[in-house]
Design goal:
Layout (H helix, E strand, L loop, with lengths): L1 H5 L7 H11 L3 H5 L26 E5 L9 E8 L16 E8 L1 E6 L2 E6 L3 E4 L5 E5 L5 E8 L3
GO cellular component, one term: cytosol
InterPro entries: Cro/C1-type_HTH (IPR001387), Cupin_2 (IPR013096), Lambda_DNA-bd_dom_sf (IPR010982), RmlC-like_jellyroll (IPR014710), RmlC_Cupin_sf (IPR011051), TransReg_Diox_bact_type (IPR050807)
Organism: Ornithinibacillus bavariensis
C-alpha cells in the first residue's frame, strides 16, 4: 500500500495517512505537502495546491497550511463526493481529535455507531479514535472545514 501511495497509483484515506504520520512522528501535512516547514504559514488561494485524493474514494481534500511546527493542528477542506459517486462505506479512526465545520452542502456524520445530519453552518468536535465517516446526503458535493488536532 505504501508503495502504491508513493508512486501515485492509489489515493490514501486521511485516516491512513494520519496513522502513517503518527508512526513516523511527523505532522499530516508533512506527508502531503512538498514545501519546507515555516514559522509563518501564509497561503493565498492561488498558491494552494489543488485537491488531493480521489473522488472515487468518496472525498478529496485541500491543505490550508503547509508544514508548521508552531501548531498542533492540521487545517483541511474535505470535499465529500456527491452521493451518486460515493463508494466509501467503512468508517475511519486516527489518533488526532477532529473539529469540523460544514462550509457548503450537507453530510451525514456517522460517529461511534450513530448518524447525525449536518448542514452548512453546523460544527462538531470529536475523538478521531472512534469510528467516523462523512457520507453525502444528496448529489451535491459538500465541503467540510476540518482541523485535525494532535493530542498533547
Amino acid at each position: 500500500m505504501l508503495s502504491k501511495i508513493e508512486n501515485g497509483q492509489t489515493a490514501s484515506a486521511i485516516a491512513t495517512l494520519s496513522k502513517i504520520s503518527e508512526t513516523l512522528e511527523v505532522s499530516l501535512s508533512w506527508l502531503l505537502d512538498e514545501r519546507e516547514e515555516q514559522d509563518l504559514v501564509l497561503l493565498t488561494r492561488d498558491n494552494r495546491r489543488a485537491r488531493i485524493g480521489d473522488e472515487n474514494m468518496g472525498y478529496s481534500y485541500e491543505l490550508l497550511a503547509n508544514r508548521s511546527q508552531l501548531s498542533r493542528f492540521e487545517p483541511t477542506i474535505v470535499h465529500v463526493t456527491p452521493k451518486n459517486l460515493n463508494l466509501r462505506e467503512e468508517s475511519y479512526t486516527h489518533s488526532q481529535d477532529e473539529f469540523i465545520y460544514i462550509l457548503e452542502g450537507s453530510i451525514y456524520l456517522f460517529y461511534d455507531g450513530k448518524k447525525y445530519f449536518m448542514e452548512k453552518g453546523d460544527s462538531a468536535c470529536f475523538q478521531g479514535s472512534k469510528p467516523h465517516l462523512f457520507i453525502p446526503v444528496d448529489d451535491k458535493e459538500a465541503q467540510v472545514l476540518t482541523f485535525f488536532m494532535d493530542n498533547i
